[in-house]
Structure formats: structure tokens, C-alpha cells
Write a structure and sequence with these properties.
Strand content: 5-15%
Protein name: Ornithine/acetylornithine aminotransferase
Number of domains: 2
CATH architecture of the largest domain: 3-Layer(aba) Sandwich
GO molecular function, one term: transaminase activity
CATH superfamily of the largest domain: P-loop containing nucleotide triphosphate hydrolases
Strand order of the largest sheet: 2-1-12-11-10-3-9-8-4-7-5-6
CATH topology of the largest domain: Rossmann fold
CATH class of the largest domain: Alpha Beta
Bound molecules: adenosine-5'-triphosphate, magnesium ion
Keywords: Aminotransferase, Transferase
Number of helices: 19
Radius of gyration: 25 Å
Structural class: alpha/beta
Pfam family, one: HerA_C
């Protein structure tokens, strides 16, 4: 690119970032070491094309997401924020106009005013304060549960049958102990004949599922599953003054319980996906997610889970939902997800080690050609500065802009604990979700029928079944996975066209060694690896039936038997 004069460079940024529709102001452009009157913005229309906020520690990522969330709220857009360090509670306290802050905001052309924002605080799994978010096992469904437990296809089909059995016998699955009770019953002497009637479920497989359920418990999921179930429509609300509500999920123990967060996220995205209508590229998003410390979402997650996240992120765009990942380096986000993040706010990267240097080079390669020396910009950007490129209203990348960011109007850093507890205590949602309930369900019914407590034991012995290898990295794989999710969750044919099947293109969540036939809803699952025995015609028939029932069941989970929503 021919070297421009400073004025030409500034002008190209000014033009590149002037949009017709609503936009979030990120800051003012820095060119040749000076801040200029050239505002760098992100069009609301393009926020469903997702984004990445990255940068080394202390460079201003969390403040950037606070700034964006505030403005989205101002435009009436609800926002969901995962708050790991508790520093987003500052949204409930007006900012302090210090001299330094006033000088900064004036220099970037911001008309700063101290403000607070409408916030709801949530908690997960009984950790920390906040309105507790719970989901019932039945609404979570056997498919998602299998993804979380990393079950293979045989085990997944068995789990579907178990859900179906519980459904036909009116054994409600509210919490993990309900599901455990049903499986324990089926594997007990009393339930033996029922288990045999279920065809595709072997005692050994039921035992494996039972052990995996115990793992979920150990990861703190017991308190997530149960009633009253959270209505995800709560996240789509506006305050009486028309501002979007900021839903802040406090996650103080995320480091110890990453599975709890990923379980919740996948349920939330799937639920929103099935509930929201298609909107395509709307004027403004319906909801925007900011997932701070996003590496914790992906670290150690199973491939099946990563694949589900990738597909859901891809599909949820057309529902008007934007997802912004906030993390130290783009390397923290899996490649397939990264490729879908059109809006980039890259704070300074460190370049101390050879690995840092590689990451820097990789990051630079993802930016459009630019008049900046990106190497310098990405290593020298100051705190609260970032290198930005977003998607313009025509769907093309904007020119790269080294940006000095605007500042939040609420407090940077945490609010006082009493401010937060006051907001939680006075929230109308506390009346609805505050206290866990334990209505009569499978556990109680089976106990009553047996006249004794269902033994709360886990069968021992036997090896945990093989883990499911995930799909490959190709576009075809992602599309196949996306199609499968759409078809199985929504129970209707997918709108995503079939791409030419490459190797492993259709092996989503199938053991690699058994990939033989094309995966489609209603198709009989391929022969299982070890348990139960492979080429057994009776079993094959049973599995076909299981799969059909499974599809029906999923249809029920997310389609016809949709939960009644309050939608206030
Ligand atoms: N836009 C801004 N305006 C004013 N000050 C800012 C801005 N961005 C960052 N800062 C200052 O930098 C500090 C660190 O920012 P922040 O907490 O967002 O960093 P971070 O990248 O999220 O760090 P970590 O990786 O440790 O979470 C803030 O507390 C604030 O003082
Ligand atoms: Mg941070």
C-alpha cells in the first residue's frame, strides 16, 4: 500500500467508519502518534457477526467490553456479560470524573457523563450472590447432556431411550438425582424387565452413564440442574426507560468449575437458538454476549463440546445474537470459532518470548493490509488503546484504526458489595428464581414405589467407554455439525446446504473407527465400538428404533413440547 500522508490516512479512517445506522463508539483514531478527529465505530447492524477483544493482561479488555455494553444498553440492546473477576459490578456505580479521566475523554471527543446502568446479577450452581440460574435435566435434553458428558453415539442413544422411558412413565427429570434414580431403577433387579423392554440399553452402558453423572456432580452441576428453571427470555428485556438490561453473570469459582460454565453456555445458546425467530441482519442485535476470560470456556473442553459451540455460534447469528470473546491472545479461541469473529478490537500484545512473537505474527496476518506498521501498533498501543477493524454495513472490513478508546461512564472496577447485594435483593427476579424447589419427580416417585430409598450408588468396575473423537477441522465438518444441531434441536430439515463430503465430513460425534455411513437424522447409528456388541441384527433394529425415538424426543424437547415462557 502506497504511503499516505497523515491527513489522507486520517481521512481514510473517517470515511471507513462513517455509517448510516446506529453504532457503538469505540474511540478516536491515532495516526502518526496523534489523536485525530476521526471516530472509530462499530455498527450495531454488524454485531451479530461476532467479535474478539484480545490483548495482554492489563491492556484494557474488560474496560472495552464495559464501554461497549454501556452503549448497547443505551441503544436498547440487552447484553449478557460473564464476569469472572467481579470487576463488571462497576456498571452499578457512576464513574468518578477525575481530572485524568476528563482530559482523556475530552481528547477522544467523548461527551462523558457519570451514569449507572440497569443490571441484573446472576449466579450459577449456588456460587456467589446473584439470582440463581437453573435448568431442568429434561429441558437440557439427552443430546446436550451427551455432549457435556462426552458420551459416544451408543451411549447417547441409550440416554435418549432412558429419557423417553422416563417421559412415557411420567417420571419427571428435574435434577440430576431424578435421572440417577431412573437409571438406578432400570439397572436394579426390580427394573430389570423394564430395561430389557428398552432394547438398546445395556446394563453396562447405563452404568457408564451413571458414572459420568457422578463426574458432573463433582464439577458442581448438581445445583445448576433443577427448578425453578430460568427463562432465557429474561435476558432479552429492556428497562422501563427503554435501555437494554445488562445481565451480569458472576463467576467467582469458574477456574475450579469450568464445566459448569460451559454446560450453562451451551444450554443457553441452544435454548436461545431454538426460541428466537430468524431475523437475518437486523438493524440492531437482539442480544449481545461478552465472554470475558473466554479461554476458560475452551480449556479442556471436549471436542464434541467445541464442535457444538462452533456450530451454535455460527447459526445463532441469524437470530440476531452477537457473541464477543474476550481473551489474552487470539490463540485461546479455536480456529473454527476465530474465523467467525468479524469485529476485532486488539489491545497490545506482548512480544517477549519466541512464542509471543509467533502469536504476534499470526495476529498481524489476520488484519487487512494497512497504512500502519502493525508490528509497532500491536506492541506499542498504550493501556486503553487498541488496533481495530470491524465489519462495515456492506459486510467488508473497515480500514485498520489504532484507536484510543472512549471510557465507560460507570465505575471502572467493582462496585461496593452492598450496592450489588442491594440490587440483587430488590430484583423482581429474586421472587421467581431465588429459592430452589423440589417438586415431586422421578426420584420421589421411584422411592415411593419401592417403599425404600433408591440406593444412591454408582456401579463400579468396567472401563469408561471410549471418548468421542471430534470432527476434523474442515468447513464440511462444521457445516455437517451445524446441520445436525439444527436438525436435531429444531426437528426440521436444515437450511444449511450440504457441502461435498470430505474425509470425516459427516462424522460428528461418532467414533472414528466406526464412520461408515452418512449421518442424518433418523439414520441408524453406526455399530458401536465395544458395548454393546457390534454386528448384532437385533441390536441394530433396536438402535434404529432408539434413534427414531431420540429424534422424536428431541423434537419434543425443543419443538412441540417447548417450555411455556413468561416473556414479560
Ligand atoms: N478506555 C479506558 N479508559 C480509561 N482507562 C482505561 C481504559 N481502558 C483501560 N483503562 C485502565 O486500565 C486498567 C486495566 O484495564 P482492564 O481491567 O480492562 O484490563 P484487562 O485487559 O481486562 O486486564 P486483565 O487481562 O488482567 O483482565 C483499568 O482499570 C483502567 O484504569
Ligand atoms: Mg480483564
Amino acid at each position: 500500500m502506497a504511503k499516505m500522508t497523515t491527513e489522507e490516512h486520517v481521512q481514510s479512517i473517517r470515511e471507513g467508519y462513517s455509517f448510516d445506522g446506529l453504532a457503538v463508539h469505540l474511540g478516536a483514531a491515532l495516526v502518526d502518534g496523534q489523536v485525530h478527529h476521526a471516530q472509530v465505530r462499530l455498527p450495531l447492524r454488524m454485531m451479530n457477526r461476532h467479535g474478539l477483544v484480545a490483548g495482554a493482561t492489563g491492556t484494557g479488555k474488560t474496560i472495552t467490553l464495559q464501554l461497549m455494553a454501556e452503549q448497547l444498553s443505551g441503544h436498547g440492546v440487552p447484553v449478557f456479560l460473564a464476569d469472572i473477576k467481579g470487576d463488571l459490578t462497576g456498571l452499578s456505580t457512576p464513574g468518578t470524573p477525575t481530572e485524568k479521566l476528563s482530559a482523556r475523554t475530552a481528547s477522544v471527543g467523548m461527551d462523558w457523563q457519570a451514569k449507572t446502568f440497569p443490571v441484573e446479577y446472576y449466579s450459577l450452581g449456588g456460587d456467589g450472590q446473584g439470582i440463581p440460574i437453573r435448568a431442568t435435566v429434561s429441558s437440557f435434553g439427552p443430546l446436550l447432556l451427551s455432549r457435556i458428558m462426552d458420551l459416544n453415539e451408543t451411549q447417547e442413544s441409550c440416554l435418549q431411550l432412558i429419557f423417553h422411558y422416563a417421559d412415557t412413565k411420567n417420571l419427571e427429570l428435574h435434577d440430576l438425582k431424578d435421572l440417577r434414580a431412573v437409571i438406578q431403577y432400570l439397572t436394579s433387579d426390580e427394573g430389570k424387565s423394564e430395561l430389557e423392554g428398552l432394547g438398546g440399553v445395556s446394563k453396562a452402558t447405563a452404568g457408564v452413564i451413571l458414572r459420568e453423572l457422578v463426574t458432573l456432580q463433582a464439577q458442581g452441576l448438581e445445583a445448576f440442574f433443577g427448578e425453578p428453571e430460568f427463562d432465557t427470555a429474561e435476558l432479552l428485556r429492556q428497562a422501563p426507560d427503554g435501555r437494554g438490561i445488562l445481565s451480569v453473570l458472576e463467576l467467582p469459582t469458574l477456574m475450579q468449575k469450568p464445566l459448569l460454565f460451559s454446560t450453562f453456555m451451551i444450554w443457553l445458546l441452544a435454548d436461545l437458538f431454538s426460541e428466537l425467530p430468524e431475523v437475518g441482519d437486523a438493524e440492531k442485535p437482539k442480544l449481545v454476549f461478552f465472554l470475558d476470560e473466554a479461554h476458560l470456556l475452551f480449556n479442556g473442553a471436549s471436542k464434541a463440546f467445541l464442535s457444538s459451540i462452533t456450530s451454535t455460534v455460527r447459526l445463532i447469528r441469524s437470530k440476531g445474537v452477537g457473541v464477543f470473546f474476550v481473551t489474552q491472545t487470539p490463540k485461546d479461541v479455536p480456529g473454527e470459532v476465530l474465523g467467525q469473529l468479524a469485529n476485532r478490537v486488539q489491545h497490545a500484545l506482548r512480544a517477549f518470548t519466541p512464542d509471543d512473537a509467533k502469536a504476534l505474527k499470526a495476529t498481524i496476518s489476520t488484519f487487512p493490509t494497512s497504512n500502519y506498521d502493525l508490528d509497532a501498533a500491536l506492541t506499542q498501543a498504550g493501556t486503553g488503546e487498541a488496533v481495530v477493524t470491524v465489519m462495515n454495513e456492506k459486510g467488508a472490513p473497515t480500514p485498520v484504526a489504532w484507536t484510543r478508546m472512549w471510557s465507560p461512564e460507570s465505575t471502572m472496577g467493582p462496585s461496593k458489595p452492598e450496592v450489588v447485594s442491594g440490587i440483587i435483593g430488590s430484583s423482581a427476579l429474586m421472587q421467581v428464581y431465588g429459592t430452589a424447589t423440589d417438586r415431586e419427580s422421578a426420584y420421589e416417585k421411584l422411592n415411593a414405589a419401592a417403599g425404600t430409598a433408591v440406593p444412591d450408588q454408582v456401579p463400579t468396575g468396567g472401563s469408561v467407554a471410549a471418548r468421542v473423537p471430534g470432527p476434523g477441522q474442515s468447513q464440511a465438518d462444521i457445516d455437517a455439525a451445524a446441520r445436525q444441531i439444527e436438525e436435531s434441536i429444531l426437528g426440521r430439515p436444515s437450511s444449511i446446504p450440504h457441502s461435498a463430503p470430505g474425509p470425516g465430513a459427516n462424522d460428528y460425534a461418532m467414533p472414528e473407527s466406526t464412520v461408515a455411513t452418512k449421518k442424518a437424522p433418523g439414520r441408524a447409528p453406526s455399530a458401536p465400538t465395544s458395548d454393546p456388541k457390534p454386528d448384532n441384527p437385533m441390536l441394530d433394529m433396536a438402535m434404529q428404533a432408539a434413534n427414531m425415538i431420540g429424534s422424536e424426543l428431541l423434537r419434543g424437547m425443543f419443538g412441540t413440547k417447548r417450555r411455556r415462557r413468561r416473556r414479560r
